[in-house]
Amino acid sequence: MPELPEVETIKNALSKAVDKANITKVSIFNNHFRKIIPDDFARRIEGAQVMAIRRKAKYLLLELSNGLTVIWHLGMSGKVKISDFPPENLEKHDHVLIETDKGTIVFNDARRFGMLTYEETDKLDNCSLFSHIGADPFDERLDGLYLYNKLQNKKIPIKAALLDQEIVNGIGNIYASEALFDAGIRPTRPAGELSRKDCGKLLESVRRILRRAIEAGGSSIHDYRKPDGSLGYFQNMHCVYNKTGQKCPGCTCNVAQTGGIKKIVLAGRSTFYCPVKQK
Ligand SMILES: [Zn+2]
């Protein structure tokens, strides 16, 4: 599933390709997504200019000149392809084509858990899609104290709390394991037992890991590709994710004795950690 760094990478690519572009034609070949694409979607956005491209949680927002904002979610398997001209032939699962005077965007989604809709821009803040979304990891108002307060009395493992989108949004499964490793915190620790200092440290790690992943263009696992078709390379920088039995970077632990990086399942999700470094 595209996580925050992948969505941010796609946002950056869209900004480069179609910011200030005029939408000339929208073709919808299949509207059956998690939520059906509104019947008047094409008619409402054709002719508008793209004024700004933003990310809110894992939603891409294209703010248009006509007072509407396109709301776009990539679901489990959604891909964005950007080209200078409309493709001559559609590929399998190419469901929506948005043509502009600067380039063409294709929305390809094999499993169709994604979403494409619009909302009036000045009603976005009250939009039900965003009502349960916690702080963005890069929001300046988010600090160790905020996280500490949110975690009070929570008995769930800290790894599960990091995935709770109502606490902080956008930390996906890969990055939760990586951030906990970076902070030296064991994923199984009850969230409510973290000190204020731990929370500050963890937040710093979350930001460091996400920033590095965005710089690397995201993690190309489960066939995620950047909109230009190239691969992100953050998966090459993973320290613990999918590294069961291996040494963690800079680890002095004796793998023969410890068994190296451990894989466990927490709240239904694969979780990786070093039993020596993470306490
Ligand atoms: Zn280790």
Characterization of this structure:
Helices cover about 25% and strands about 20% of the residues. It folds into two domains: about 5-130, MutM-like, N-terminal (N-terminal domain of MutM-like DNA repair proteins), CATH 3.20.190; about 145-275, Helicase, Ruva Protein, domain 3. The two termini are about 30 Å apart. The protein has about 280 residues and is an alpha+beta fold. The chain has helices at about 5-20, 40-45, 145-150, 160-165, 175-185, 195-215, 255-260, and strands at about 25-30, 50-55, 60-65, 70-75, 80-85, 95-100, 105-110, 115-120, 260-265, 270-275. Bound molecules: zinc ion. Zinc ion binds near residues 247, 248, 251 and 276.
Fill in the keyword field for this structure:
279 residues; alpha+beta; N-terminal domain of MutM-like DNA repair proteins; Helicase, Ruva Protein, domain 3; 2 domains; four-stranded antiparallel sheet; 10 strands; binds zinc ion
CA-based shape: globular
Strand order of the largest sheet: 1-6-7-5
List the total number of helices. Answer: 7
Low-confidence stretches: none
Q: Catalogue the ligands.
A: zinc ion
